[in-house]
């Protein structure tokens, strides 16, 4: 005859059955923020930090790495719309201070979206600020510190390489081309900073920003090297079209056909590839 379990036995069995569940119970992991990046260099940082799974949208300047080209696009960084960005349900937006219009950024903040803006001054601090901003917004601060340490070491190495050259610094003129129109870079521009970092001298001074390229300006500037972007050369129809411009005919650069080109984002983006960009320019300036 089978005995009936006592009340104490039943309670003990129930407690034993519940132990594995209690031991294995884990708190639900916190959801990582959904990110929209409004700047190609900032997007690069997201990938370097391994946060690309959090990336739900980017602007049209976000072209590197190639995977960034497949992300949903929210438009050009200065012509954003709140509706387009909010449709991606981001938790945080990371952008440079030239993103806008400002009213759109205010609308995004009012909708509860965290907006991180990085101010550009065309120094190494630009890179540091971008890495820190992405680290905060993506909740990857430790990875951001590790990345920054690696980039700082690369930057220091490039700086030593440039400083070690004792030859006369070449005069370099940066041309920004948009089809038939062309402008040259003066002071306070990303191009001027890159020329200086790579061991050159900006051939033009005495004005801020960009101004149209004229024959008079070219004659007085006397650049040894013309610097431009791959995209700019393509916009004017190729290298031969550049040298056909009459403004360049009397320059030392024209006589030597001395032209250095680099991808626009690499050259002017001030992102994590800045040491690479400067190293390449330096080697071309002193080839």
TrEMBL record:
<dbReference type="InterPro" id="IPR002491">
    <property type="entry name" value="ABC_transptr_periplasmic_BD"/>
</dbReference>
<keyword id="KW-0732">Signal</keyword>
<feature type="domain" description="Fe/B12 periplasmic-binding">
    <location>
        <begin position="34"/>
        <end position="287"/>
    </location>
</feature>
<dbReference type="InterPro" id="IPR006311">
    <property type="entry name" value="TAT_signal"/>
</dbReference>
<feature type="signal peptide">
    <location>
        <begin position="1"/>
        <end position="25"/>
    </location>
</feature>
<dbReference type="InterPro" id="IPR050902">
    <property type="entry name" value="ABC_Transporter_SBP"/>
</dbReference>
<dbReference type="Pfam" id="PF01497">
    <property type="entry name" value="Peripla_BP_2"/>
</dbReference>
<protein>
    <submittedName>
        <fullName>Iron complex transport system substrate-binding protein</fullName>
    </submittedName>
</protein>
